[in-house]
Amino acid sequence: MTEQPQTEQAETKPTAPDPVAVREAVTRQAVLGALAKLVDDEYKAAKKTADDLLDRSHKAGGTTQVDALLPDGTKVGSSSRSGGEREAQVVDAEAFRAWVRDNYPSEHVVEFVPAQVVTRVRPGFTGKVLAEATAAGASRYVDTTSGVVHDVPGVELRPSRAASHRLTYTRGSKTQPASGRDLVAAAWRAGALRKFLPALAPAAEPEQ
After folding, report:
1. Residue among 162, 163, 166 nearest 80 (CA)
2. Which residues contact 184 (CB under 8 A, 6 or more apart)?
3. Does 184 lie in the same domain as 149?
4. What's the whole-number average pLDDT of the chain?
């Protein structure tokens, strides 16, 4: 039987890219990575300052939103504050239990378990007291039967959710097609925003 000759397939060697193009791509990545880190660090510092000042403005006068304006007065966005809600919480269980025992004994449960006696407040009543205190904005409970207003011991209003801040940019419209982001970019290219990031700002043109 005659053996068929084997045909060797020559491997195609990949074409090497232009070394100049490779170096340009790597350099571009390095430059943008360094600039992105610089901008990110500056942004985090700017956000902390803006959030702190907005919180102080809110406490002083109830301010919840402030617009971001370019030097020429053009609005490009706004920062809004929300949250910071407070709700009533039991912070001293023993003081709260004693108050319930003395004023609402039917809501105070005594349970006998092996080798000990356990006393507690019915969960439903605890929830009712806390819900009313939260709605009233004070550690108080009104007895609907007697009309007596109780200052509830062991209960305080505490933050249930931290305040949050959200920065949004304006959207394009018929009167202003450019978005807030586009307006900021254009102002940056025009050299109008040097003071916000002097480390990256283009050099000012010398006066003639």
Report:
1. 166
2. 70, 76, 169, 193
3. no
4. 88
